[in-house]
Write a structure and sequence with these properties.
Oligomer: single chain
Number of domains: 2
Helix content: over 70%
Structural class: mainly alpha
Order of helices and strands: HHHHH
Largest sheet: none
Shape: elongated
Number of helices: 5
Distance between the termini: 66 Å
């Protein structure tokens, strides 16, 4: 992966200084895929069947609960503890 990063940096320098722009950027795209492969395979390596459901709950359920549940609960609590002078308004 580090070799892919080094090749990408070298291709950036070459692409900026060459007259063959299309070919150099095509080579840049090919070289950038070398390090993208291991990076894209990381979730499949770490998310095993045993850990997958817990992580999906953290990612998807927590924002749903925070966005939908807490405002409703806070509104109910606010209406219960609201001063009587404000209820008549």
């Amino acid at each position: 992966m580090l070799g892919g990063f080094a090749l990408f940096a070298a291709m950036l320098v070459i692409a900026a200084r060459t007259e063959f722009v299309i070919l150099s950027f095509a080579a840049l795209g090919l070289v950038s895929g070398i390090s993208a492969g291991p990076i894209m395979s990381l979730p499949a390596r770490t998310l095993g069947p045993r850990n997958e459901s817990r992580r999906h709950g953290d990612i998807f359920y927590d924002p749903l609960r925070d966005g939908c549940g807490w405002p409703h609960c806070c509104g109910k609590i606010a209406s219960m503890v609201e001063p009587p002078a404000l209820r008549s308004m």
